[in-house]
Amino acid sequence: MWAGTGIALLTGGFDRPYAYGLAMALSSKGLGLDVIGSDEIDSPEMHTTPKVKFLNLHGSRREASLANRIWRELTFYLRLIRYAKTATPRIFHILWNNRLQVFDRTLLMLYYKLLGKKLVLTAHNVNAGRRDLNDSPLNRLTLKIQYRLVDHIFVHTDQMKAALSEEFAIRGEKVTVIPFGINNSVPSTDLTPEEAKRRLGIKNMEKTILFFGALRPYKGLECLVAAFQRISAAHKGYRLIVAAEPKKGDEQYLCDINKTIETDPTRAHIIQRMEFIPDEGTEVYFKAADVLVLPYKQIFQSGGHGCGIVPGRYRGRNDGLPSAFLRGWGSSRGYREVL
Q: Could you tell me which of 316, 5, 55 has the C-alpha nearest to residue 164?
């Protein structure tokens, strides 16, 4: 797109599967790459792959005291500003913003532009604030500024491209649609589905449904739980795995889910792993599952790991799916029909 092959990949310090896959793909094309990451992003491949230079500017992102978090963020931004000033790559690819969204979308973008950098942004969500029901004029304004300041935007669906045009007046030629890639960062061993089920205490003949990922209200887990409870009460041989990491700020949602599960007679048929699942632990859940269910109320992209997917009624990923999957979603009734 531009002269020069050096790219700085600004990861935001999280989402290792996406950062890993993109870094390995770019390096395989012979592109020089600076990966601005964290302890979470780090891996042996980041240090052994030719033309990849890993810079751990974020350090640890673990929970800490308020004072430590403030110091950690201040230190990171000072490192980032210093790096940008002397960085060789001409292209800065912003995979995710950092924690200070308003600063990242405005002043930091202007700083990069003053340094003569060409800016590329991957817009995973056109407006996450609207999805999470906490949108505001400031959020929309700073999003619009960032979308206007970048030189090019990558999205994963045609609907996202249309949303950028409709909501933020972004020209179509400034946006490229690239389908969501396959997660190649998690181990894939010779573990069999039968062994995976045995490890989780599931009988081989039991039909197993999986909900996996960060736990957020927009993902609609309550719809899936309600549907499963009705099906499991009427039919034997069904199991539900909920392997989900609760997110800060959604404690009440988690409490409501737990209460719904614990007060129902079908609770013995539900396996709960309410915690972060590391990459090395992912495989067993997906191989034990007969189907992955995404009961999302709104989503632009997501993916599985070698098992069938039942999608929800969500914005942006309905194209190409059977019409039977697109009727009645967003409620427990719709999921009962398919399950």
A: 316
Residues 118 and 261 placed together within one structural domain of the fold: no
Task: Assess whether 13 and 156 both reside in one domain.
Answer: yes
Q: How far apart are CA 96 and CA 94, in angstroms?
A: 6
Question: How many independent structural domains does the chain possess?
Answer: 2
Rg of the chain over all Cα atoms, to the nearest angstrom: 21
Does residue 315 form part of some domain?
yes
Task: Give the model's pLDDT for residue 182.
Answer: 67
On whether both 21 and 77 belong to a single domain, the answer is yes
| Cα 335 from Cα 52, distance rounded (Å) | 44
Q: Is the pLDDT of residue 301 over 60?
A: no
Across 120-124, 180-184, 280-284, 308-312, least confident range:
308-312
Q: How far is the C-alpha of 58 from the C-alpha of 98, rounded, in Å?
A: 9
For 311, the domain range is: 193-338
What angle (nearest 5°) sits at the alpha carbon of residue 172, between those of residues 171 and 173?
A: 95
**Cβ distance 226 to 260 under 8 Å?**
yes
Q: Count Cβ atoms within 10 A of the Cβ of residue 183 and give its class: 0-12 exposed, 13-18 middle, 19 or more buried.
A: middle
Measured distance CA(240)–CA(263) in Å, rounded: 16
Question: Could you give the 3-state DSSP secondary structure of residue 264?
Answer: coil
Q: Give pTM, 2 decimals.
A: 0.74
Instruction: Tell me what pLDDT residue 61 has.
Output: 80
The whole-angstrom separation of Cα 321 and Cα 251 is 33
The tens digit of pLDDT for each residue in 232-279 reads 888 889 999 999 988 888 889 999 999 999 999 889 999 999 988 888
Residues 6+ apart with CB under 8 A from 245: 213, 214, 215, 274, 275, 276, 277
CATH number of the domain encompassing residue 207? 3.40.50.2000
